[in-house]
Specification:
Layout lengths: L1 E7 L35 E4 L2 E10 L2 E11 L5 E7 L9 H8 L3 E4 L23 E3 L2 E4 L20 E6 L4 E14 L2 E4 L2 E2 L9 E4 L27 E7 L2 E6 L11 E7 L1 H6 L9 E8 L6 E6 L1 E5 L2 E2 L12 E6 L4 E7 L11 H10 L4 E5 L7 E4 L6 E3 L13 E7 L1
Parallel strand pairs: 12-13
Antiparallel strand pairs: 1-17, 2-3, 3-4, 4-22, 5-26, 6-24, 6-26, 7-8, 7-18, 9-10, 9-18, 10-11, 10-17, 13-16, 14-15, 14-16, 19-20, 19-23, 21-22, 21-23, 24-25
Amino acid sequence: MTGRHKRRGAGRGRAVLAFLTAFGALAGAALAGAAPADAVQKRVRVAPGVTYEHFDIQAAKGVTHAHVLKVDLGNPRVQVDLLYAGAVASRAQVSRMADAQGAVAGVNGDFFNITETQHPGVEATGASVGPAITAGRTLKAAVPNGQRFGPELPPGTTTEDVFGVGTDGRARLDRLALDGSVRASGTRLPLGGLNQYALPVGSVGAFTSEWGSASRVRATCGTDTDRAAPCSTDTYEVTVRDGKVASAADTPGRGPIAAGTTVLVGREAGAQQLRKFSTGEPVEIEHGLVAATSGVPYRLALGGYPVLSGGRPLPGLDDTASAVRTAVGLADDGRRMLLLALDGDTAYRSGMTIAEVADTMRRLGSQDALSLDGGGSSTLVARKSGATTVSVRNHPSGGAERAVPNGIGVFSG
């Protein structure tokens, strides 16, 4: 189990890199022909164990431009951790998060609750879809599959899928499931969510100080299979402070949650159970993320969906819809990490299909790879020689950096 807690109560370049000739042509995504010698861009060292490079790729819908960070996780001066804005329900530009945390490079991360047009009057939280861990500390769990923002999940994948780096410094793809409970008056209730913008129908979710100040109403909207379904009319909220029920309300609230305080939000059957709690009643809350495969605790984890496993693209990947993409891959049994972000400039905006992304990550040397948020979110940043702050290396397709909930940060020193 990872992170169990128990509480009482973002430069353009079109030159083709010389090194890419070693890869040959990509099937369905062939590398563009060699550029003139004076136009060849060489690999750039960002920091010890961290390099940046960019190159053209001829994809199905036209030429796209790829920006890649290669990270040696075995280098003792390299660390990787989550970039985030200080709370689950908050957003910031990748460059700002990287500079605030001292990262030398990074990319944007998970898909997120970007809009609530389907629920007029309900605040979009900006919270990410999947699980998140930073510095070994659990921030949140995954929303139900049907509540996910982003393209349709490939067959056999889930919102619990993550890219992670363990305390052993090795990168992995895994799944992280929530395991938690609420105990009061001899009754044990399973915990259906942790700092999530959407809770399963009939469940109880826990919100901690990690959530932030955003309204918790969104957690009671939609269903497990239909994100656009109306918000529940049967809700209840209980605030647990110092291990005891401090207050209750019929409607989920908003505002910061103090350290040591947990707000329980219930919908339908979960709301009915919370109504049985009495002010002053002792409450015990436990929660943690359980890894499906790794026995090594995670220092970093964030959500996305797998596109490559064991050097093979996942079956059923979409090969028709092209877009600007971001992805993370692992090579050498997790000892190397590759971060890919496509350029959003109008000359390259046709992008790639997910199937092409998987094949590109394989050609770059990845054994496993996870697709991250794309489109206007796709951002890759890295410090230039002698700089103390990062620069956005690709062109975000919206014309400017989008604020996002999290990302993968690369640190040196």
